[in-house]
Each structure stands twice: as structure tokens, then as C-alpha cells.
């Protein structure tokens, strides 16, 4: 098996930045408040539990991607384990949810930016549209540019989050942790369900595995580096939210601004706006890059229209798939804006589909891997499935998308089926 891709454009530094962009998305802007509203101070239990779950999930995706570096990512893994139909369903899940996830990411970032500038609701929509256009433009230009930009963005972002937590944690007050679990175990499960949005991303980055210059060597290192940074930032953020903001975290629209105020005072709002832009662009950049390559790979393998396959090779930009993704994202963005869907609803919907992707990909790893890696995959599959049950009726979304994917495959095969031979005309025989 070939492990080196000379046409790949990603090294360890850019790859780590793209992985961080997938995990450290705009969820850190809104999710601390949403989790606190769901579980109170006990939300920190959900943060810790999901961090522990991230270890086997990240290790499983790194092992799969290192062995099978391909733009198909999760679809490639599930095809090897379960066949073409399951791969198509998994691929459609991920490709379909990115427009919703990207739209919500843009709206979260835009809300912080508009709040800092004192702008209204109309400005939030306009700023979100600009953020989406910027992310798609960066991917249109190419992964080398977007990867370099991501490296700068993630460096600035990590510095801002570290400053916020370092300045806020000295104000930690144990009294803010009582009552610790006002909503009980159901509240913790509800918080874990919405927080899954903040921990999904390993599956998105797997679609970029074919872009690394040496996937077998780099992917495990990149995953370990990204996981270490994510763990440090999320643990500090969870502790600061619960112990410093206390009950105010659940009602604050901008909890990160409240934490940054301890370090920067009145300058916290504009700094948070910068942080929001970095988070939103970073997450959208990675998810769009991964999904566009997945769309091309699915078309290559017959699970999507053949014209989208152009550009699926490592080192190339799949412009047609990217264009379709942009159109779907624009539609999702306009629809969510017109219907006035809340951020909690959009994030839970995204979490439901991404949880389905993670469960199926980890189940594929159980069949494909051996030894310790297989045990990690089995643990990740069981734990993710258990957390996903807290998403209740949102789990209907992956079922609907699965039906659409299988319907497309059935239609495609019916059209490709050769027509039965017509009646053979009798040829007159001359006497």
C-alpha cells in the first residue's frame, strides 16, 4: 500500500491547524452557555466525558485514515467494511449536514461580531453571508492557501482562548458550583448531546488524509497534537464557565466575551469579535474542504452524479463538488434565516447526523482493525451510540438522508440496467 503522496500539499503544521479548525469551531462561542442552560454546573461532567470519548474516537479515525488515505474519508472506511450501499449512506450523511453546520457556524460568529459593533439582526445575516463567502473563496483558491491561512488563524485563536481562561480562572468561586446538578442526570445527557457538536470534526478531517505528503507517518502525530490542544482549551473553558460565570453562563448570549472581560476589560467585545471570526472561518474552512473532496470521491465511486468527480485526486481542488456544496449551503442558510431556527436546534440537528457518521465509521473500524486499535474502536462505537440517544427525535434526520441516498442508488442502477432484447423479426427465406 502506498503511504506517500508526492502530490499532497499538507505537512504536519498545516495539517494540525486544519484538524484544530474542525474541532475548535464556533461551538466554543455558544456551547458553554447552551450546556450550562441544560445542566447547570454539572455541564462540566459532560465536557470531561466527551473529552475522554474523543481519545478513542480520534485514535480510531487516525488509524483508519493512515491505512486508507483517500478523499472519501468515512465513506472509504465504511465501503471497505460494509460495502457500497453503506458507504453511500455514510457519505451522504456527512455531505448533507455540512451546509447546516456551516450556516450555523457563520451565524454564531456573526452574532458575536454584530454584538461587538452594536449592530442589529439584519447585520448578523449580512456578516454571516460574508463569512461563508470567504470560506468558500479560500477553498476555491486551493488547500495550500487555506491550510496556511488556517495555521495563522489557529495560532491567534489559541492565544485568545488561553488569555481568556488564564485571566478568568483566578476568579473561580466554588460557590458557583452549587447546586451542582439542578437538572439531574437528564440535564447532563442533554448537555452532552448538544456538546457533541464541539467534539465532532475528526470525521471531517479524515477526508483530507489523501492531501498529506506522508499520511501513514503524519496523521497519528497530527491527531495527537490536535487532541492535546483541544483537551487543554476545553477543560480550561469548562472550568472557567462553571466556576467563574456560574448561573450567569446559562443566560449569557456571549459567555466568551464575559470571560475575556477579566483580561481585557472594555476591549473584550472587539477581541471576542476577532475570536468569533477566527473560529467560524477555521471550522468552515476544514469542513468545506473535507466535504467538497468527499462529494468528488462519492461521484467517483458512483454514489453521486459523475460530473462531480472531477478534481478528486490529491492535490487538486474539486471545483464542481465545491460549487454544489456552496449552493446547498446558501439554500440552508436562507432557509434557516427565513424560518428563524434557533442555534440550539441547528446544532442538535448537526450533532445528530455527525453522531450517526461517527458511529458507523467506528463500527467499520471494529471490522477493519485488530488488537488494541479494534478495542478502542469498539469502545468509541458503544459510547457514541449511547450519547446519540439523548438527541431523541433529531435522529430522524440521518434516517431521512439514508433513505434519499439509497433511493438515488436504486434510481441510478435502474437507469444503468440494459434494456431487455426486443422481439427477433423473422427473416424471409428465399425458396
Automatic annotation (TrEMBL):
Entry annotated with the keyword Membrane: yes
Main subcellular location: membrane
Domain of life: Bacteria
Compartment list: Cell membrane
TM spans (from-to): 16-38, 44-66, 87-113, 119-139, 151-172, 184-202, 222-247, 259-283, 322-343, 349-369, 376-409
Signal sequence range: none
Stored InterPro entries: AA/rel_permease1 (IPR002293), APC_superfamily (IPR050367)
Coiled-coil annotated residue ranges, if any: none
Protein name stated in the entry: Amino acid permease
Membrane topology term: Multi-pass membrane protein
Keywords: Cell membrane, Membrane, Transmembrane, Transmembrane helix
Amino acid at each position: 500500500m502506498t503511504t506517500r503522496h508526492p502530490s499532497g500539499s499538507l505537512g504536519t503544521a498545516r495539517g494540525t491547524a486544519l484538524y484544530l479548525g474542525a474541532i475548535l469551531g464556533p461551538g466554543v462561542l455558544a456551547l458553554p452557555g447552551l450546556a450550562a442552560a441544560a445542566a447547570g454546573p454539572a455541564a462540566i461532567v459532560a465536557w470531561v466525558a466527551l473529552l475522554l470519548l474523543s481519545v478513542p474516537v480520534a485514535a480510531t479515525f487516525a488509524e483508519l485514515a493512515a491505512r486508507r488515505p483517500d478523499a472519501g474519508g468515512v465513506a472509504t472506511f465504511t465501503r471497505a467494511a460494509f460495502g457500497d450501499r453503506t458507504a453511500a449512506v455514510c457519505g451522504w450523511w456527512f455531505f448533507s449536514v455540512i451546509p447546516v453546520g456551516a450556516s450555523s457556524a457563520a451565524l454564531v460568529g456573526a452574532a458575536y461580531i454584530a454584538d461587538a459593533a452594536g449592530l442589529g439582526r439584519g447585520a448578523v445575516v449580512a456578516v454571516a453571508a460574508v463569512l461563508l463567502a470567504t470560506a468558500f473563496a479560500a477553498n476555491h483558491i486551493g488547500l495550500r492557501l487555506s491550510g496556511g491561512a488556517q495555521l495563522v488563524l489557529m495560532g491567534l485563536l489559541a492565544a485568545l482562548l488561553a488569555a481568556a481562561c488564564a485571566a478568568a480562572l483566578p476568579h473561580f468561586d466554588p460557590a458557583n458550583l452549587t447546586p451542582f446538578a439542578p437538572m439531574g442526570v437528564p440535564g447532563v445527557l442533554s448537555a452532552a448531546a448538544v456538546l457533541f457538536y464541539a467534539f465532532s470534526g475528526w470525521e471531517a478531517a479524515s477526508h483530507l488524509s489523501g492531501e498529506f505528503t506522508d499520511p501513514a507517518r503524519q496523521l497519528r502525530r497530527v491527531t495527537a497534537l490536535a487532541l492535546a490542544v483541544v483537551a487543554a482549551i476545553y477543560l480550561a473553558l469548562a472550568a472557567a464557565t462553571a466556576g467563574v460565570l456560574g448561573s450567569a453562563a446559562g443566560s449569557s448570549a456571549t459567555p466568551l466575551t464575559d470571560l475575556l472581560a477579566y483580561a481585557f476589560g472594555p476591549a473584550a467585545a472587539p477581541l471576542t469579535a476577532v475570536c468569533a471570526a477566527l473560529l467560524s472561518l477555521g471550522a468552515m474552512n476544514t469542513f468545506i474542504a473535507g466535504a467538497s473532496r468527499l462529494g468528488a470521491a462519492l461521484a467517483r465511486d458512483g454514489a453521486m452524479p459523475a460530473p462531480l468527480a472531477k478534481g478528486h485526486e490529491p492535490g487538486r481542488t474539486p471545483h464542481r463538488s465545491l460549487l454544489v456544496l456552496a449552493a446547498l449551503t446558501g439554500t440552508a442558510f436562507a432557509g434557516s434565516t427565513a424560518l428563524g431556527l434557533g442555534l440550539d436546534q441547528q446544532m442538535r440537528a448537526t450533532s445528530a447526523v455527525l453522531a450517526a457518521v461517527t458511529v458507523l465509521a467506528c463500527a467499520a473500524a471494529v471490522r477493519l482493525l485488530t488488537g488494541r486499535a479494534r478495542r478502542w474502536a469498539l469502545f468509541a462505537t458503544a459510547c457514541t451510540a449511547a450519547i446519540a440517544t439523548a438527541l431523541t427525535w433529531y435522529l430522524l434526520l440521518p434516517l431521512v438522508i439514508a433513505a434519499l441516498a439509497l433511493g438515488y442508488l436504486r434510481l441510478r442502477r435502474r437507469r444503468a440496467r440494459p434494456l431487455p432484447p426486443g422481439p427477433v423479426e423473422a427473416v424471409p427465406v428465399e425458396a
